[in-house]
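Audit log entry. Action: structure prediction of a protein-small molecule complex. Ligand: magnesium ion. The ligand was supplied as SMILES and no pocket hint was given, so placement is left entirely to the predictor. Protonation state taken as written. Sequence taken verbatim from the request; no trimming, no tag removal. Recorded inputs:
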Amino acid sequence: MPIQSQLVIFDFDWSLVDQDTDRYVFEVLAPDIRRKIKTRQAEVQWTDLIAMSLLELHGRGRTRKQIEDALRVLPFHPAMQRGARNIKENLRIPTTLICLSNANLVFIETILKDKAFEDIFEEIITNPAEWRDDGALIVKRRVSPDGPQHSCTTGCSANMCKGEELENYLVRCNKTFDRMIYVGDGSNDFCPILRFKRQGNRYRLCPTIPWTRKRIANEGEKAGLKASIRYWAGAWEVEEIFNTLTTP
Ligand SMILES: [Mg+2]
Ligand SMILES: [Zn+2]
């Protein structure tokens, strides 16, 4: 049966873009805070750590414009932009794109806006963020530490379980897809691809090295991974794979 609809799910850092937004901003504006993040990441929850570090940056007089300028020069490969645009606008298979990211909404939207890409995603599922009147960027966890936490058992860390977030999206959007495609690289991109089998969809996956790949190798079979997998390293290879996914 030909494919009549598809969903493309993009992780953001090191997947849609060629960098990690959280770390990059500090590498550009305050390398010593970047060092502190690396030192403390094992003991402080990641989103909290970035939120605190952004407040420290603000305390040093770094402005909203400086943060936005740093995000605007973050590497975003033209081939990835082209590939995402082509698969979204292909006329043969109606294709929905969403973003599933543990970065934050301000970082993601600033970059997308700069590249005239604001319309690419139907939904951006990530940590909430907003600019305070005094120019501080306030980031919060998507799943508040005070409320119920995710119930994932595949080893997702606190805050977002991307698998649950994807399943919730699929219920919320009220559509079915003949094929789902997931582009990711991180260890937290393993959980959502395990959920593909429960949706009864056909599937394909394009993770790069190293983290998702490591988990697929170590845990994939035991966890019942059903998605077919394509490895890629450069944006041009994702574009190449996408070009094969625009015909039914
Ligand atoms: Mg990533
Ligand atoms: Zn999970």
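Audit: result stored. The CA atoms of residues 175 and 201 lie 12 Å apart. Residues 11, 13-15, 184-186 surround magnesium ion (ligand 1) (CB under 6 Å).
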